Records
---
Amino acid sequence: MRLLHISDLHLGKRVNEYSMLEDQKDILKKIIDIADQEKAEGILIAGDVYDKPVPPAEAVRLLDQFLNSMVNRSIPVFFISGNHDSQDRLAFGAALFRKSGVYTAGETLCEKITVQDEFGPLHIWMMPFLKPAYVKAACPGEDPETYTDAVRIALGTQKMDPEERNILIAHQFVTGAKTCESEELSIGGLDQVDASVFDEFDYVALGHLHRPQSVGKEKIRYCGTPLKYSFSEIRDKKSVTILDIREKGNTKIETIPLIPKRDLVEIRGTYMELTAKSFYENLDPEAYYHITLTDPEDVLDALSKLRLIYPNMMKMDYDNDRARSQSEFEAAKEMERKSPEELLEEFYEMQNGQPLSEKQRKLVLEMMEEIWEGSK
Ligand SMILES: [Mn+2]
């Protein structure tokens, strides 16, 4: 069976105040084209379908159109909720959708759908994004301390036959994976899941981290976002992962590049250089730019003047002596880059003249996790 693996669509997302809807519409169309060309027999969407628990109507329409396109092609879709989605809302119509071959992980911790192909049964496990607290609430008597425990308990609710083929769709942070700026900040690595819980699966279709990457083993894989959602991803190559699962033990993985309608581009130079026709005539005027001006003095009204040439400029800053000497500004920027736990550790040290103990650190991390969870 040939399956497309995508994740983290974040439909409805805005990047630096720019709506990504047009870009998302375009990239979904390209994913449909790939499904046609590659004769896909199923699509796995590993969470963060939407960017918000209550997505804008346009984003809902986009998903609706995408699901319809797949149903019209008789390509089944399997999707789970990520940490950005509302699991309950995403499960709307789940029982009805199933009749059309659209499988959404409902309100359970983990569900197993079995499909058939020429090699026999293929078990597709769907495990929506979960935290120890969800597992505790759903499984009386269980009190998982870590995310790894939580995942192990959730997977344990279904029977595993390791002689048959099993693939898992999940949305978790697997230890060792590389992060980028468009993801939600992870607090102190508490949310990490040890890859050993996935040992028995023939493939793990992951979402959550936005860079395409395998973690440890090739078969434990993040397909990455279909689009770049931050300038930290500028050099990433976005793609769709294709999984060719044949008889037990024979699974091939390949990627097909995704080319966006508008790329994210960083350019730097003086105002005169960047506004010279010879410079910009070879650039895509529609791309999303991050422009760094290197003029020694700030240029009057540079933002609006540059927008005449680069209408989709997302970000503009200066790199000159003045910008560098603005230590206060830099310190603030430095602060933004720090994680909440680093900030608290520094604060504690400043107040008490000694670092946090391991015990205190653990307590602090747990409290942060609890407070953040409560504020959602
Ligand atoms: Mn995401």
Note: The first helix runs from residue 21 to 37.
---
Amino acid sequence: MKIEVDRGKCVGLGLCEAASPDHFEVGDDGQLVLVSDMVTYGQRAEVEEAIRSCPTAALRLLP
Ligand code: SF4
């Protein structure tokens, strides 16, 4: 599975980083960096939590 970010919706709040720091990092400039966009089955729960925590619904998980 793969993470997709809608950059037009992301406002750099970093809630996704708190839920899944292996995948998301917000830089000092407020830009989201995808540390890794690939999601293993073992990582799926934390990435889904990150997606749920995003207040602007900027994240989705692709098969
Ligand atoms: S939680 Fe959503 S808006 Fe905030 S940095 Fe992550 S993707 Fe962007």
Note: The chain has one domain: 2-55.
